[in-house]
């Protein structure tokens, strides 16, 4: 038995050694295996950490105007996770600010709050959160609920019967939690497809030897670049409509804003990702390297764009980097147009950002492609 086991272990060890040598023969992939998990851990933990992000903007309606209600406002401001951006007098104004996206939460302290608190009557405070972004809504609700509930502690209100929270969401206007999760998927799935198609375009031709054949055809360099640009654009447009109609059919995704405006922002987004994908494809020698690079790009974009972690929670330098990502701006456009009914005035800064990124990425891509095609 031992005479058979030892040779078997020896053969297995040689096979394992060969696999490891082959795995680490690609220096880029070897560095990726070590550096990527650590880097992503650092980015995501810092983005989600208590001290890593900017406080979320909320509004307060104080109908009581007493010392007790002022303590509620102070408690909200002292959480570090919330910033009382404005104080309003009407619920309609607060709901409008939520709908426009200028705030993420609204706290309404009712008239008679302090009287009911001291009378052990259990006063009720209304919290309304932005239902179009479940990540931010959960953070606002957690921070506000904790701060308000703390005011019912005996140290703050002796003999109190506790504070009741009436939690609502902009979902009461017809947007369900599932729909608020489906909306950003339209951007993320479209992003993956376009980046993959564009990212493999040039390097696939080069690896199969057909790039040299294209260079000796009557095609000019500009015609070749345009020819490489159109397939990702067409694939992206088809996927945009397929995803949109699927979301409408199966999950009843609302379309409260202009679909023409949504399509316009989608085309800008697709063009920018096509340009970046072609740039990546022109900088690598093999399809395997391109695939690895695209994989890294997707993971980093997930950490920065607001898909996994709200952009407002990112450290300042990471928030600056996120402004360079087309996906970050397109996700804002999708949420605003589909869920809030936003028009161009609500997203114009993100449209301008997409146009600017297109100019930058296409300039970079054209220069890189011309060098590759020499």
Give me the secondary-structure topology:
Layout: H1 2-23, H2 27-48, E1 56-62, H3 67-77, E2 82-88, H4 91-100, E3 105-109, H5 113-118, E4 124-129, H6 134-150, E5 164-169, H7 177-199, H8 201-208, H9 210-215, H10 221-251, H11 259-282, H12 287-304, H13 316-322, H14 326-340, H15 344-372
Parallel strand pairs: 1-2, 1-3, 4-5
Antiparallel strand pairs: 3-4
Helix pairs in contact: 2-12, 7-10, 7-11, 7-12, 7-14, 8-11, 10-11, 11-14, 11-15, 14-15
Task: Give an account of the 3D structure.
This protein has three domains: 2-48, no CATH class; 56-173, abc type-2 transporter like fold; 177-372, no CATH class. Strands 2-1-3-4-5 form a five-stranded mixed sheet, with helices on both faces. It has helices at 2-23, 27-48, 67-77, 91-100, 113-118, 134-150, 177-199, 201-208, 210-215, 221-251, 259-282, 287-304, 316-322, 326-340, 344-372, and strands at residues 56-62, 82-88, 105-109, 124-129, 164-169. The protein is globular. The chain is built from 15 helices and five strands. The protein has 374 residues and is α/β, with parallel strands linked by helices. Helices cover 67% and strands 8% of the residues. Mean pLDDT is 79; it is low at 154-160.
